[in-house]
Write a structure and sequence with these properties.
The complex is a heterodimer of chains A (259) and B (256). The two termini of chain A are 28 Å apart. In chain A, 79% of the residues lie in helices and 0% in strands. Chain A has one domain: Orthogonal Bundle (MetI-like fold). With 259 residues, chain A is mainly alpha-helical. Chain B has 256 residues and is an all-alpha fold. Chain B folds into two domains: 32 residues; 210 residues, MetI-like fold. The relative contact order of chain B is 0.12. At the A-B interface, helix 1, helix 4, helix 5, helix 6 and helix 8 of A face helix 1, helix 4, helix 5, helix 8 and helix 9 of B.
Chain lengths: 259, 256
């Protein structure tokens, strides 16, 4: 079944995929063309709209969304690591907290959006709190898993060497670090969903709000600009995280499995 | 076994008692306003009222229908893409750039788009749900097939299996554990996406229910709706675990 393929054929297939996307897009926009309502604008129309938006509101929207994502991610991750360490290291905490966390996890964080709006209004904190919640539930599970599966031999060695408490804590932390980092990276990816959704439901600034305004005025090109900008930001964040991880923790070989 | 089960039950009971206790403390002793945090008994009463409400039953059925449609579409497409990625080099070279770029498009950023395209019809939500689970399924399928012991495949080929028979009789069972892990993730992602897609531009559904309750400042209804969402999510997860136990009895469950 596995066909041998030459290098040129592979390059051709890769090029073909890019061409197919562009061609399919242009064809669809041509087929669905209507003079009154651009339901499926061609790529160049989206590019033009991007240029227009970039000169006006796109910058503040991107900054606002970035601020929400960063703030929520940092808060949620710190809480997640703290509670996750508690659950992973202390059996009593695990006994009490795990079923609660398991149940709350099944109410998807995004179902908290209406409640967050009731609690925090439509400003910064209603969005940041959702992203914090999204990040928290991902990081807490991964941290607890990493802490529970920590390297007990290293821990014993640390005790035998009579290391001080901060150093012993560091041994445990580093032993769980691959799992924690995996959680942080997955959370970073999931955070963008929280950003766009909570801004769609209630917001006046941010990429989700921009898309929402585009939808209300049947400006599909504006929605598509929002989609592409969000995708690029998500991609860049992931790439940046992987680079930073390789720089800071070069000893971690493979924590890329899973989600 | 039963001791373990007992311990789990006690653990769950303790945890929930603590949670409800904290909640009750916040509402009854600290006296938060009901619009911020209604009392647990008020939410329980709202749940009883909703249980016999036909329009709420309609909301649940709408959400479940959208979930089923999106899941079937997304998982089928995801498995096909995954098999192609793992087993066909030329197709993989064609599909990989597509998957690696399109999976970064946040599914929820499609919501305003499908509202413009499809209006309030469920087809738009099904599109978003399918989009939310197709890439999870594709990447996990590809990984599942890629992880199969090559000796197993060589042995099967040597014994004369090939083509569809190889795929159905050897590759599929060998990839099943990881495939089901992918399915579990896809179901979770799909359920999130159903609720999220219903926030904007829907006629019925649990997402619409809670967002409507929110705009009416009916926090009790919001929390009752969230509880129902959580219970259905839990039931779905348990159903997939049961499926896992039936399909692959030899494989231990992957917990956290």
């Amino acid at each position: 079944m596995r066909e041998p393929a030459s290098a040129t054929a592979l390059v051709a297939a890769r090029t073909a995929s890019v061409v197919a996307v562009l061609l399919g897009w242009v064809t669809l926009s041509w087929l669905l063309y209507s003079p009154r309502l651009a339901l499926f604008p061609p790529p160049w129309a989206v590019a033009v709209r991007f240029g227009q938006l970039a000169r006006t509101e796109l910058g503040p929207d991107v900054l606002f969304s970035l601020g929400e994502a960063a703030g929520g991610w940092v808060i949620g991750s710190l809480l997640g690591i703290a509670i996750g360490a508690l659950v992973g290291l202390v059996p009593a905490a695990r006994f009490v907290l795990r079923p609660v966390l398991d149940f709350l996890r099944f109410i998807s964080p995004l179902a908290w959006v209406p409640l967050a709006i009731l609690w925090f209004g439509i400003g910064y904190w209603s969005k940041a709190s959702i992203i914090a919640l999204v990040s928290f539930f991902i990081v807490v599970v991964n941290t607890a898993h990493g802490m529970a599966a920590r390297d007990r031999d290293a821990q014993k060695v640390a005790r035998a060497l009579r290391l001080r408490l901060p150093q012993r804590a560091e041994v445990v932390l580093m032993s769980a670090m691959p799992d924690i980092l995996l959680g942080l990276r997955v959370a970073l990816g999931a955070a963008w969903g929280g950003v766009v959704l909570s801004e769609l439901v209630a917001g006046d600034v941010g990429l989700g709000a921009m898309e929402s305004f585009g939808g209300q005025s049947f400006d599909v090109a504006q929605i598509m600009v929002g989609m592409v900008v969000l995708a690029v930001m998500g991609y860049a964040a992931n790439l940046g995280f992987v680079r930073a991880q390789r720089r800071l923790f070069p000893w971690i070989r493979s924590n890329r499995t899973g989600r | 076994m039963s001791a373990l089960r007992l311990q789990r039950a006690v653990s769950a009971a303790t945890g929930f008692a603590l949670l409800i206790g904290l909640w009750w403390f916040a509402t009854d002793v600290l006296g938060t306003r009901p619009v911020i945090l209604p009392a647990p008994e008020a939410v329980a009463r709202a749940l009883f009222v909703l249980a016999v409400d036909p329009s709420f039953r309609n909301d649940i059925m709408t959400s479940l229908t959208e979930l089923a449609g999106g899941l079937v579409l997304g998982v089928a497409l995801g498995v096909l893409i995954g098999v192609a990625l793992a087993r066909h080099r030329l197709l993989a070279a064609f599909l990989e750039p597509l998957v690696e770029s399109f999976r970064f498009i946040v599914p929820f950023s499609l919501v305003p788009l499908v509202v413009v395209w499809f209006g309030l019809a469920p087809i738009g939500k099904i599109f978003v749900v399918a989009y939310a689970c197709v890439f999870v399924m594709a990447l996990n399928t590809a990984a599942a097939i890629g992880e199969i012991d090559p000796l197993l495949l060589k042995a099967a080929t040597m014994l004369g299996l090939g083509g569809w028979r190889l795929l159905l009789r050897v590759i599929l069972p060998a990839a099943m554990p990881r495939l089901l892990t992918g399915f579990q993730l896809a179901v979770a992602a799909a359920w999130v996406a159903v609720v999220a897609a219903e926030y904007v531009g829907a006629q019925a559904g649990l997402g619409m229910f809670i967002v409507t309750a929110q705009s009416g400042l009916e926090t009790t209804q919001v929390m009752a709706g969230m509880a129902v969402i959580g219970v259905i999510g839990l039931a779905l997860s348990l159903a997939v675990s049961a499926l896992r136990r039936v399909l692959i009895r030899y494989e231990a469950s992957a917990g956290w």
